[in-house]
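Technical annex, item 7. During the second reporting period the consortium partners agreed on a shared format for inverse folding records so that results from different sites could be compared directly. Each record opens with the tokenized structure and is followed by the designed sequence. A conforming record, contributed by the partner at site C, is shown below for reference.
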């Protein structure tokens, strides 16, 4: 599941989804850094898209389909690194849990 600040959508829809399958462009630290923003602050999809893809969105009426497309483009642009980092974090967690037992 790919999106931007997707927890808000899940909350409104009263849905849950396994976190290991979620790729949220609002939470991915390298995207925050590339956007030139504060790492602890959630960047707006509009700003990420403009800065990283050179595309202007949300100029007037909100278009949820366009937002979904842009979040997917951002993910695909960084998918290789993102997935490698995710797998490393997962294996580190598993090793840590084994040590705790």
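Designed sequence (site C submission):
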């Amino acid at each position: 599941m790919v999106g931007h600040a997707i927890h808000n959508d899940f909350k409104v829809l009263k849905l849950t989804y396994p976190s290991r399958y979620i790729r949220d462009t609002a939470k991915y630290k390298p995207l925050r850094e590339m956007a030139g923003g504060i790492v602890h602050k959630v960047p707006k999809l509009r700003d990420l898209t403009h800065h990283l893809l050179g595309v202007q969105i949300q100029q007037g009426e909100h278009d949820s389909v366009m937002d979904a497309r842009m979040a997917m483009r951002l993910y695909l642009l960084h998918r290789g690194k993102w997935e490698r980092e995710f797998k490393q974090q997962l294996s580190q967690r598993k090793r840590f849990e084994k040590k705790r037992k």
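The chain has a mean pLDDT of 88. The beta strands are 2-3, 23-24. All partners now use this format for quarterly exchanges.
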